[in-house]
Write a structure and sequence with these properties.
The complex is a heterodimer of chains A (about 425) and B (about 90). Chain A contains 16 helices and 13 strands. Chain A starts with a helix and ends with a helix. Chain A is of the alpha/beta class and about 425 residues long. Chain A folds into three domains: about 5-75, no CATH class; about 90-120 and about 225-400, Rossmann fold (3-Layer(aba) Sandwich), CATH 3.40.50; about 125-220, 3-Layer(aba) Sandwich (Rossmann fold). In chain A, helix 5 links the parallel strand 6 and strand 7 (about 165-170). Chain A is globular and about 85 Å long. The longest helix of chain A has 15 residues, at about 195-210. Chain B is of the alpha+beta class. Chain B has a single domain (about 5-85), classed as Beta-grasp domain (Ubiquitin-like (UB roll), Roll). Chain B has three helices and five strands; from the N terminus they run E-H-E-H-H-E-E-E. Chain B has helices at about 10, 30-40, 45, and strands at about 5, 20-25, 55-60, 65, 80-85. Chain B has a five-stranded mixed beta sheet with strand order 2-1-5-3-4, with helices on one face. The termini of chain B are far apart. In chain B, about 35% of the residues are buried. Classes of the chains: A alpha/beta (about 425), B alpha+beta (about 90). The interface between A and B is medium-sized, with 37 and 26 residues.
Chain lengths: ~425, ~90
């Protein structure tokens, strides 16, 4: 780039400088851009980190603000972020009652249902993607979404002053539609499945040059997921758990959790062996579980049929990488029915006091299934990733809950209820 | 009536700088062969060494994923549109 072109690019840029990219398949280098695939082989591009960069100590990290940005050296930016500075550092909740129900030594819930600002782990990836968008000089962002991502992009774009085009399947849960529309984006409801939305958005990104966070900004977006692993390691006292289980939609989260633990271990900041990674899906949409179980190399796409809408991706982009991470870590995968996932939501709520969305129900029910099958061990310390808030998907659990009694405001009516409950 | 093949921008460099191509052929595979005969550099990015669709792209015939049909053997009607999308997205 000439010096005048560099000056122009700098003038347009309002965000941090970005790490360069490299192809995960062929290793070809690529300059930072809003393109997520390699020109040479079409493999996925991922950030290339300088192996000689200075890494912080545990004490230095602990002295930083409690957000995902305290791990900046492992995120794809060469300067400090400029927007979404308050995302991350959600609670890690110890749940002895859930551990007893699962038959494991210890169960901890990484509670991204409490994520700021939109109550799902998608806040992390969007925080990373919007800083990348600003670093690339883009003024319009967007996404193809099953709901949580739509919420996160709409909210964070609104406060960053970016225009947003958000595409969702037309029949998403009402909480997810309202929880997007309220921030004032261009919200487009598409007649079709998430996979239809995704295909359309690939064409939209190509045609209009929008920064669609999970498409052409995906190389920068996905890295935000690693912060869940970083936080878990730090919150455990700078060590790894025995096992971790997460829901799988596109398959990126499981892959990035594995990568996150590996990176902090390599840096000498985490003690203990790499955790076994477990993945959870609904039986009505389980292409990654199928791949793990078949031992194959390529995803066979499916047409989703499940109430776990946030996991209803029949053609998961990172499915093969997720399956590889699970197999190589010594973990496993499981799928559960819609009925089992609703029971999972209730088990999590009743044992832990955390109301997770359908994906959380899938995760808890799958953990129960894996524990009963012996894939999880009685001695295990297990972390369960709750990735979204149950208030967004109340439709799923409402029919399964007991009807509450309605009484007149009279003590004798309550006394009758108390008597009957004995 | 010819068939329209739409390529993503990332593949246009290998196809004479064009993303939209008119082609002929009775199946998706035959249409791809027709275009790659004119742009040989494109061939390895659309068809894998095993002759099947290259795993890092997805082919849609009139908005339907050909993996749910007959793959490259899926019949193509006159005037149809084939869209090629990189297999990177979702979630």
């Amino acid at each position: 780039m000439s010096s005048s072109a560099t000056a122009r690019a700098d003038a347009q840029r309002r965000g941090p400088r970005l790490a360069p990219l490299t192809c995960r398949l062929c290793g070809a280098p690529s300059a930072p851009s809003a393109v997520a695939v390699c020109e040479r082989c079409l493999g996925p591009l991922e950030p290339a980190y300088d192996p000689h960069r200075r890494l912080p100590t545990r004490a230095e990290i602990e002295a930083r603000p409690e957000t995902m940005w305290r791990y900046l050296e492992w995120l794809p930016f060469l300067d400090a972020p400029v927007v979404s500075l308050d995302v991350g550092f959600t609670p890690l909740v110890d749940s002895p009652a859930l551990a007893r129900a699962l038959g494991v030594h210890r169960a901890l819930v990484k509670n991204d249902a409490a994520s700021h600002p939109t109550f799902s782990f998608k806040d992390r990836v969007v925080a990373s993607a919007l800083n990348a968008a600003l670093g690339l000089g883009l003024d319009t962002v967007g996404c193809a979404s099953t709901g949580n991502l739509a919420n996160a992009v709409a909210a964070q774009a609104a406060r960053a002053g970016l225009a947003a085009w958000i595409f969702i399947p037309e029949d998403l849960e009402i909480g997810k539609i309202v929880g997007t529309a309220v921030y004032g984006p261009r919200l487009v409801r598409v007649k079709g499945t998430y996979d239809d939305v995704n295909r359309l958005c690939a064409q939209v990104a190509d045609r209009f040059g929008f920064g669609l966070v999970n498409l052409n900004l995906r190389s920068y977006y996905g890295e935000g997921s690693k912060t869940m692993a970083f936080e878990i390691g730090e919150q455990l006292g700078w060590r790894t758990p025995d096992a971790i289980i997460a829901p799988m939609a596109g398959g990126s989260l499981v892959t990035k959790l594995d990568k996150g633990f590996r990176e902090l271990r390599t840096a000498g900041l985490l003690d203990g062996p790499a955790p076994r990674v477990y993945g959870a899906q609904a039986t009505g949409c389980a292409p990654i579980v199928n791949l793990v179980e078949s031992g194959g190399e390529q995803i066979v796409p499916v047409q989703p049929r499940t109430i776990a809408r946030s996991l209803a991706i029949g053609n998961p982009a990172d499915g093969r990488f997720a399956a590889k991470a699970i197999r190589e870590s010594g973990g496993a995968a499981a799928a559960v029915t819609d009925e089992e996932l609703v029971a999972g939501i209730r088990l999590l709520a009743e044992t832990t006091g955390v109301f997770g969305e359908t994906a959380a129900g899938v995760t808890v029910a799958s953990a129960l299934k894996l524990a009963r099958a012996g894939a999880l061990r009685p001695s295990d310390e297990l972390v369960l990733c709750v990735t979204g808030n149950g208030l967004k998907t109340v439709e799923a659990v409402l029919p399964a809950l007991p009807e509450s009694p309605v009484v007149a405001p009279k003590l004798r009516e309550v006394a009758a209820l108390v008597e009957r409950s004995r | 009536m010819p068939v329209t093949l739409r390529l993503p921008t990332v593949l246009a460099k290998s196809a004479g700088g064009q993303t939209v191509h008119e082609a002929t052929g009775g199946t998706v595979g035959a249409v791809i062969d027709d275009v790659t005969s004119r742009h040989p550099e494109l061939a390895s990015r659309l068809r894998g060494p095993d002759g099947k669709p290259y795993p890092y792209v997805i082919f849609y015939l009139d908005d339907e994923d050909i993996r749910f049909q007959q793959g490259f053997a899926t019949p193509v009607a006159d005037g149809a549109e084939i869209v090629v999308v990189p297999a990177i997205a979702g979630g």
